[in-house]
Each structure stands twice: as C-alpha cells, then as structure tokens.
Amino acid sequence: MLNYIGTAIASGPLWMEYITFLKALPATTAQEGSQRMTSIRKAYQRAIVTPTHHLEQLWRDYENFENSVSRALAKGLLSEYQPKYNSARAIYRERKKYVEDIDCTMLAVPPTGSYKTLLLRVHRSIHWLVIVFESPLVDGESPLVPGGHRFSTA
C-alpha cells in the first residue's frame, strides 16, 4: 500500500503508523530482531525522503531510532540521509503552498460566485498538477512511472 499512497503529501501519519507497527512486531530470535531493525530502518529511510506533512517528526524519530541502536552507525547513516531529508523538506515546502490552497472536500458542482474565484481555483489546481506530473520525486523517479507518485491527495 505504501508504494501506491506513500508518496502523497498527506501520507505522513501512514508512515508513522507503519513504523509503529514494525516496532511492535515480536522478535524471538536474534535473526528476527536483526531483520526487524533492518525493516524499521528501511521504512524510516523511505519516509524521510518523501515530502509529507510530518517530515520533521519522522526525521526526529529516525535520529532517535538510529542513536538508540548504535551511535557510530547513526553518525554515518544520518550524515548520508541529511541531504536527502533536506531535499525532501524543500520539495515539501514548495508543494505545501499549492496544497493548502486547494479545497479537496469541495464537490464537483458548477461554480458559484465570482469569475475571479473560479479562476483562482483553476489556477491553484493547475499549479498542483504541474508539480505532481513534472517534478521528480526525491529519489529521482518520475511520478508517471511505476513506483512513482500515483495518487495526489492532500
């Protein structure tokens, strides 16, 4: 499911819940514990490069997770993912400007009100579509190919 909606700007809580689920899995053997830590690490690493509303919280949680596992390993991994996180944060700020202005709960009915209001809504929606379909994701994938941005919900 994360492959389909995990790149949406509103998917932050989904990532947080998925990571909480992974942390709650029991590990009876050392190998299972190691696999669980690897799964949690991969989930965090995917989440912190995805421009979502809860990106800062995910980054803080990831830092705490890595530091609790191994400070030496954390230093290397955090320095590797810091630029990717910063890039995702910049993309998030850009996208947030357009998403905040779009009323996703508005029904598809003939517009009422002024022509200026209608043009403003159209303009905001067009800007959002341009962002979704022309800008690459943080990891370089195009939104139009498998593994890219399939759903654009705010």
Features:
single chain, 154 residues, mainly alpha, disordered C terminus
Notes on the structure:
By secondary structure, the protein is mainly α. It has one domain: Tetratricopeptide repeat domain (Serine Threonine Protein Phosphatase 5, Tetratricopeptide repeat, Alpha Horseshoe), CATH 1.25.40.10. It is built from 6 helices and no strands. The protein has helices spanning about 1-5, 10-25, 30-45, 55-70, 70-100, 115-135. Helix 4 packs antiparallel against helix 5 (about 70-100). The longest helix has 29 residues, at about 70-100. It is elongated, with a radius of gyration of 18 Å. The model is unreliable at about 140-154 (pLDDT under 50).
